[in-house]
Amino acid sequence: MSLPGYDYLKPIFFLLDEERAHEYAILAARSAQRILRVSGAPSFDERLACEIQGIRFPAPVGLAAGFDKNAMAPHLWGALGFGFAEMGTVTGHAQAGNPKPRLFRIPEAQGLINRMGFNNEGADAVAARLSEVLTQAAPTPLGMNVGCSRKVMGDEIAELEDVGHTVRSLVPFADYIAVNVSSPNTPGLRELQAPERLARLVGTVMAAASEKQEPPPVFVKLAPDLPDDQFAPIAQSALGSGAVGLIAVNTTIARPGVSGPVTAEAGGLSGAPLGARADVCIRLLREAVGPEVPIIGVGGISSTADVLARISAGADLVSLYTGLIYGGPLLAAELNRGLLAEMEARGLSDFASLRVSLQTSGDPV
Fold first, then answer.
1. Total tally of structural domains belonging to the chain
2. What is the percent of the chain where pLDDT is above 70?
3. I want to staple 322 with a disulfide (CB 3.0 to 4.6 A). Which of 16, 271, 305, 345 is the partner?
4. Which of 169, 182, 183, 302 is catalytic?
5. Active site annotation includes 183
């Protein structure tokens, strides 16, 4: 789905190098934030609201990690219709990421390949910015997505110290913490999904988060490339160590439904081609953890039908990134309207009822 108006701008936007276009988008977001804060908190239809782990989400569609890596515009995303936004991934050390070029569009498939490599300013710099910007609280919940710095990978003690420092730096600003052990672009990172290592990592995150008077809930983000029979033990390890929820899924090293020279580029594939696998992974996790554990569904979301599919598979909330590139900045608001229309068509009063209806019937249509 591409929204009216953006169709005219997108060809111009796509003339730019992918990463340069993203940099301009973040600069525009930061400028827009300064303007939109004057008008106060955004308004959401109350029927979209839901509460998960004590957090009130004004709408179920969020911004996934990766877009606002350095928390440049935490006030903006609610004004664009996002019910929450995940900042990061942030690491303990500032790092430049992988060599450029490292971001590749696949327009014919509405997909994206990236091998960014956790490029970010580091925990201390991001915390300093949030301390300055969030003198006025963000109007919608903020997640802080944290990961290991490349320079510490392979030394478990250093890994734990690195993530602990990042969490302590960011926890004052976090409505929830997301632990990223699933990016394919930092060598060795996905090995942290092994149940024993994940348990120690989540335990470290929990200890660091507890330094806040009311510690935020912790979610763990998993890879779509795990064997199906590994989702249950990994999920149980995360939950048994103190995490309360899961995020499914990160980008994939597979290349489903895409072709051409760009598919030979190393990195993780996101966008529409990931949607079917995301549904499978969400269903596997829901079967493994039961109905009460919250799951945020990510992958291939660009239409109301996509949102309904992820919710039907077992997600409580959804978030997107690649869809924003192809659908434009008002996509979240459009998806919210689509959900309201679906509620009205089904004679339902709120999103919670829609979620129950979808997950009971298993049919998003």
1. 1
2. 95
3. 271
4. 183
5. yes
